[in-house]
Design a protein that fits this description.
Layout: H1 5-29, H2 32-87, H3 93-176, H4 179-190, E1 196-200, E2 203-204, H5 213-221, E3 228-229, E4 236-239
Parallel strand pairs: 1-4
Antiparallel strand pairs: 1-2, 3-4
Helix pairs in contact: 1-3, 2-3
Length: 242
């Protein structure tokens, strides 16, 4: 293949643009800020789960306290009724004796309930403290995620700016270059190698490897408009006289 030497030199500009675009793409795919966002998301999900657990625990204890309150109130109501029956003297001696036994039983029952009530209320208070702590941790996690997203988006914005600018440069360069030369260059790049590199001394600028004397002699002897390739990496070798 033949191409004007000036077009071959412009191919180096295209390679430089593509290298920067590749770096931008690599940076986008391996962004530390993205990893920070994902870690912040995991932390927030864990915080949300902890809040749900704390809320459920407190809700269960609230229900237990309410149930015990009702049971204690029922016992007290029964005690008041029995005491009133004894006080007004409207019952027989046997009924009075039964009421006395029932009052003693009710007192024991109330003592057990009130002790259980106190224990559950203490757990309820502790659960409230836990919920407050988990809620605060959740708020901190939300803020941390928002900060991480802002930093990530800022970096992505910078990368996007580079990609747009270099994309425009690439489009303009393609208009100036022969289609067959660009086609070869793109084919080489599609294989994962650099499409073109400058010959500097005896070294290929694409793969950075030194050429042997025979290869270097053949490249130097080729016509200026001849498109020559590196035997090591296959890239187009651009001769600039350096």
């Amino acid at each position: 293949m033949k191409a004007d030497p000036s077009a071959q030199r412009r191919l180096l500009d295209l390679a430089a643009v593509d290298a920067e675009l590749s770096r931008a793409d690599h940076r986008r795919r391996t962004l530390p800020e993205q990893a920070a966002v994902e870690e912040a998301e995991r932390t927030l999900r864990a915080a949300q789960d902890a809040v749900v657990v704390a809320q459920t625990t407190l809700s269960d204890l609230d229900r237990d306290v309410a149930k015990l309150d009702r049971e204690v109130e029922q016992v007290r109501t029964r005690e008041v009724r029995d005491q009133q029956l004894l006080a007004n003297g409207s019952v027989s001696a046997k009924q009075a004796n039964d009421l006395q036994h029932e009052l003693a039983s009710l007192e024991r029952r109330r003592a057990v309930l009130e002790e259980e009530q106190l224990e559950v209320m203490e757990r309820q208070e502790a659960a409230g403290v836990d919920l407050k702590h988990e809620t605060e941790a959740h708020a901190v996690a939300q803020t941390a995620l928002a900060d991480a997203v802002e930093r990530r988006d800022g970096v992505l914005g910078d990368i996007g700016t580079v990609e747009v600018r270099r994309g425009e440069e690439r489009t303009n360069l393609l208009k100036e270059l022969p289609e067959d030369l660009v086609a070869l260059y793109d084919k080489l790049r599609s294989r994962g190698a650099a499409g073109a590199g400058e010959l500097i001394g005896n070294r290929c600028g694409a793969c950075r490897l030194e050429m042997d004397r025979n290869e270097l002699r053949e490249i130097q002897a080729a016509a200026p408009d001849e498109v020559v390739r590196c035997e090591n990496c296959g890239a187009i070798v651009v001769r600039t006289g350096k």
